[in-house]
UniProtKB/TrEMBL annotation, chain A:
InterPro entries: BPD_transp_1_N, MetI-like, MetI-like_sf. It is a multi-pass membrane protein. Residues 96-324 form the ABC transmembrane type-1 domain. It comes from the Bacteria. One of its GO terms (molecular function) is dipeptide transmembrane transporter activity. Keywords: Cell inner membrane, Cell membrane, Membrane, Transmembrane, Transmembrane helix, Transport. GO terms for cellular component: plasma membrane. The keyword Electron transport does not apply. This is Peptide ABC transporter permease. The gene is dppB.
Automatic annotation (TrEMBL), chain B:
Belongs to the binding-protein-dependent transport system permease family. OppBC subfamily. The gene is sapC. The keyword Transport applies. It comes from Alteromonas halophila. It comes from the Bacteria. Keywords: Cell inner membrane, Cell membrane, Membrane, Transmembrane, Transmembrane helix, Transport. Its main location: membrane. SUPFAM superfamilies: MetI-like (SSF161098). One of its GO terms (cellular component) is plasma membrane. This is Antimicrobial peptide ABC transporter permease SapC. The chain crosses the membrane at residues 28-50, 103-122, 134-155, 215-241, 261-284. InterPro entries: BP-dependent_transpt_permease, MetI-like, MetI-like_sf, OppC_N. It is found in: Cell inner membrane; Cell membrane. GO terms for biological process: transmembrane transport. It holds the Pfam family OppC_N.
Length: 343, 297
């Protein structure tokens, strides 16, 4: 157990170091002045420029520069955005939770719909209902997420008018950002009608969650179904059947747990897809998340923001992936380390 | 085909023929294959199939509805866009750009991924371990992020977005190749070749690679569907193919401005991407289950 923890912590730190190095190198690779890319401040005169150069240790060797950069990141001095002039740490702190929030709801949707449906399809494998579920999941797995979001907007927002077009919550509510998660913030805030605000926020959440969640749910169904079918073909199921166990008994005692094990690492791969989809959908719904923020940054060529945004998103995704991987390895130590299947 | 007696059977199908027979047995997979072939034919013969030049603007025919609507004309099958360009021609060319670039980048990613994966699989020890772990972790970086960084360094364009997607796809191939090679290296037939004095290089090309082709085909279809989705997503976000170039995602983004008065400009390119990805996924799915059935028989 401790060995696994140590291994994964070392891996985590190493990967983070590589990512930080990458983001440092980006300041040199991006077009424009290295100093401006690093700090986000355009020096107005030579004196200020010299001060900044000394502050960022740009007059010293690359290694010392990188070491200094690392310290600055640790201290929370991430530089300033070109376009807004605000500290990047503040902006990322606002944008990242919004993305995490919406991805979490999509993942919950996948867990609560995908898992049971996948189990059902796996147990009834190759029957009519299984084929239907399988086809529907294959179809929803193939839909381009931006198109799905557009169709949802066209249908629910413009035709039916049941869901709002964009944003997180109606402007009538003034919710101070404490945790960054809108639903929690509403409960924490005072002087507003909580019920109304929650309903409004849920209305805003509906379409983006549906757009992202559909694809993750479809992947979840396919992974679960495959895993259940694989388990059902194992000899111990035949043995259990020979002992006279009923189908529900076999399912509860043997199938459910054994089929759950391979799902976890496969879901780790889905995290990447989930975050990518969330980032694309955010731009369509003007959701104030990190994807929307990054894409605005690239349109405006805001290089300091891109450097930090890249670091933030990749750190998020990689921490999640490594965490799930580690969790999986602790749950199931007998498993081949690099085993991963197809959806 | 019923096989009651194995010995009376004159025809002994090769593994590929067996796979094809299993594949053919599934009607859905066959339909998917036909649709995919149709898309490939559209892509290859696009210049001879299109009725109009996809870039030709026509001021007299802005936003003509598709031919099945009341105001539509047969001369513009899918109608026209806000600049009077024929949507049918643009979509056919769009298939060519999207599918073609996806094919190229998948093959590129496969070549690089399989080479590195083979080296990582045959190699062992600390070097291999570090490579594996770092790759596993870096595999998790989203394509969109890589694309944004590459666009920031090199600028927008279809080729730059292709580089980004290739980079994002390579780790998958490395991963599967490495796992496969590592498992095969433990088997007897490889040991036999090794005892015959085959070098690592020969072992890989003569013994392992022929067994790996199926895995590569299946992984290739999976990667192709991801590639099509990513190419069009980047085109849609204006980070990939730039507007005059008929790329399906870019056509969709173009249609967004007139989505309310001319919904077919959004619906039809999206539907095309959807059908393309669906057909690739159906073929990949059919292929996988055919291989699974062949192995289990």
């Amino acid at each position: 157990m401790i060995r696994i923890l140590v291994r994964y912590s070392v891996l985590f730190v190493l990967t983070l170091l590589v990512l930080t190095a990458l983001s440092f190198v980006l300041a040199y690779l991006f077009p424009g002045d290295v100093l401006v890319n690093l700090s986000g401040i355009t020096p107005e005169n030579e004196v200020q420029r010299d001060a900044l150069v000394r502050q960022y240790r740009l007059d010293q060797s690359y290694l010392i520069q990188f070491w200094h950069y690392l310290q600055q990141l640790m201290n929370g001095n991430w530089g300033y955005s070109f376009t807004s002039g605000l500290p990047l740490r503040e902006e990322v702190g606002l944008a990242l939770p919004a993305t995490i929030e919406i991805s979490t709801y999509a993942m919950l949707m996948a867990l609560f719909i995908g898992l049971p449906v996948g189990y059902y399809a796996g147990i009834r494998s190759y029957s009519l209902s299984d084929r239907t579920i399988n086809s529907v999941s294959l179809i929803s797995y193939s839909v381009p997420v931006f198109w799905l979001a557009l169709v949802l907007i066209l249908f629910f927002s413009l035709e039916l008018g049941v869901a709002p077009l964009s944003g997180r919550i109606s402007l009538m509510f003034d919710i101070p950002s404490v945790t960054g998660f809108i639903l929690i913030d509403i409960l924490l805030s005072e002087h507003i009608d909580h019920g109304l605000a929650l309903r409004d926020a849920l209305h805003h959440l509906l379409l983006p969650t549906l757009a992202i969640g559909t694809i993750t749910t479809a992947a979840m169904i396919r992974i679960t179904r495959r895993s259940v079918i694989d388990v059902l073909q194992k000899p111990y199921i035949a043995a259990a059947r020979a002992r006279g166990l009923s189908r529900p008994q076999i399912f509860v005692r043997h199938v459910m747990r054994n089929a759950s094990l391979p799902i976890l690492p496969l879901m780790a791969i889905q995290i990447t897809t989930l975050i990518t989809n969330a980032m694309i959908v955010e731009t369509l719904f003007s959701w104030p998340g990190i994807g929307n923020w990054l894409i605005q940054a690239i349109y405006q060529r805001d290089y300091p923001a891109l450097r930090i945004g890249m670091l933030a998103v990749s750190t998020l995704v990689i921490s999640l992936t490594i965490l799930v991987d580690m969790f999986n390895r602790m749950l199931d130590p007998g498993r081949e380390r690099f085993e991963r299947g197809a959806i | 085909m019923a096989r009651f007696s194995l010995y009376d059977e004159e025809f002994h199908p090769s593994p590929w023929q067996q796979t094809w027979q299993e594949f053919r047995a599934s009607h859905i997979a066959l339909v998917g294959l036909f649709v995919l072939l149709m898309f490939i034919i559209f892509s290859v013969f696009a210049p001879w199939l299109v009725p109009y030049d996809p870039l030709e603007q026509n001021v007299d025919g802005l936003l003509i509805p598709p031919s099945w609507q009341l105001n539509g004309t047969v001369s513009h099958l899918f109608g026209t866009d806000a600049l009077g360009r024929d949507l049918f021609s643009r979509i056919i060319y769009g298939c060519r750009v999207t599918l073609g670039s996806s094919f190229i980048l998948v093959i590129l990613a496969m070549l690089v991924g399989v080479s590195i994966g083979a080296i990582a699989g045959i190699m062992s020890g600390v070097r291999s371990s570090i490579l594996n772990h770092l790759l596993d972790a870096l595999m998790a970086i989203p394509t969109l992020l890589i694309a944004i960084i590459i666009v920031a360094i090199l600028g927008t364009g279809l080729v730059n977005s292709m580089w980004a997607i290739t980079l994002a796809l390579i780790p998958q191939f490395i991963h599967h190749t490495r796992t496969f090679v590592r498992n095969e290296m433990k088997k007897e037939y490889v040991l036999a070749s090794r005892l015959d004095g085959a070098s690592n290089f020969q072992l890989f090309f003569n013994s392992i690679l022929p067994n790996m082709i199926e895995l590569l085909v299946v992984q290739g279809t999976l990667a192709l569907s991801i590639a099509v989705l990513d190419v069009s997503a980047l085109g849609f976000l204006n980070l990939g193919a730039q507007p005059p170039l008929p790329e399906l995602g870019a056509i969709l983004a173009d249609g967004l401005d007139v989505a309310y008065i001319a919904p077919w400009n959004v619906a039809l390119p999206g539907l095309t991407i959807f059908l393309m990805v669906l057909s690739i996924n159906v073929v990949g799915d059919g292929l996988r289950s055919a291989l699974r059935k062949r192995v289990s028989h």
